[in-house]
Amino acid sequence: MNQSVIKALKLLNYFSPETPELTLKEIAERAGIPKPTAYRLLSALESGNFLYKTKENEHDSKYRLGLKLLELGQLVSDQLEIRSIALPDMQKLAADIDEVIHLVIANQDEATYIEKVDSSRALRLNTRVGKNSPLYLGSGPKMLLANMSGAKQKEILRGSELHRASENGTINKQELLQELRLIYEDGYAYSIGEQDADTTGISYPIYDYSNQVIAALAVSGLSSHFEGDNLELLKAKTKATAEAISRKLGYRGPDF
């Protein structure tokens, strides 16, 4: 990580309930750096809304923690709540079907895997808790993207080419947008070999109390397991588990 970024982030540690407001001079002294250097780092944090300036004069400035930290803190809190609520149901589903279970959320313009339960099968997937992925690759990320507004979808997909993970080539954006519409209408997402070769994934949405999709429950395994009657069984059990988690989060159904 860039050393300037590290130095800037370390300045946030000097704020506390006992010292919610600090002057430029106080921060520079605590960090052991010149005031001009401290001012430059603080200005960078201020521009990102990590700090805000409460007072400025020709002699000194005062700073408080910014609302961006509240936003990020709430995001972490929500993630921890979803994880703790979802994990028992994920473990039960994994024991029942013996496939890999993921919990995926949208994080800015990416998807983040925040929980995972492995299967007993000899299967290695390119996933881990904390992994970020493009929102257009894999059943879980695509389920999240499908439930965003059309404007948000186009904003995320605008710009550079969309590259596949497990094979060469690019993704046609118009075909992807059409697929996202089908995912939204069908209520589940399906992917084959998009993140790992010879694997298939299916995902269902997890809703909160306001009927918003806040996560995706994804089941992944060897493609040979996701065929015929077994595929229908996996879909039914995954859907039921996603609904059970949603109701624990306060979801009461589409009519509320």
Structural class: alpha+beta
Strand content: 15-25%
Sheet of most strands:
6 strands, antiparallel
Morphology call:
elongated
Helix-strand string: HEHHEEHEEEHHHEEEH
Gyration radius over CA: 22 Å
What is the helix tally?
A: 8
Helical percentage: 40-55%
Q: Spatial order of the strands in the main sheet?
A: 6-5-4-9-8-7
- Stretches with pLDDT under 50, minimum 5 residues: none
Q: How far apart, in Å, are the first and last alpha carbons?
A: 46 Å
Brief summary:
The protein is an alpha+beta fold and 256 residues long. The protein is built from eight helices and nine strands.
Ordered list of secondary-structure elements with their pairings:
Blueprint: H1 3-11, E1 21-23, H2 24-31, H3 35-47, E2 51-56, E3 61-65, H4 67-97, E4 100-107, E5 110-117, E6 132-134, H5 139-146, H6 150-157, H7 173-186, E7 189-192, E8 199-207, E9 213-222, H8 228-248
Antiparallel strand pairs: 1-3, 2-3, 4-5, 4-9, 5-6, 7-8, 8-9
Helix pairs in contact: 1-3, 2-3, 4-8, 5-7
Descriptive overview:
With 256 residues, the chain is of the alpha+beta class. The protein has eight helices and nine strands. It has helices at residues 3-11, 24-31, 35-47, 67-97, 139-146, 150-157, 173-186, 228-248, and strands at residues 21-23, 51-56, 61-65, 100-107, 110-117, 132-134, 189-192, 199-207, 213-222. The strands form two sheets. It has a six-stranded antiparallel beta sheet, with helices on both faces. A three-stranded antiparallel beta sheet has the order 1-3-2.
Main traits of this protein?
256 residues; six-stranded antiparallel β-sheet; alpha+beta
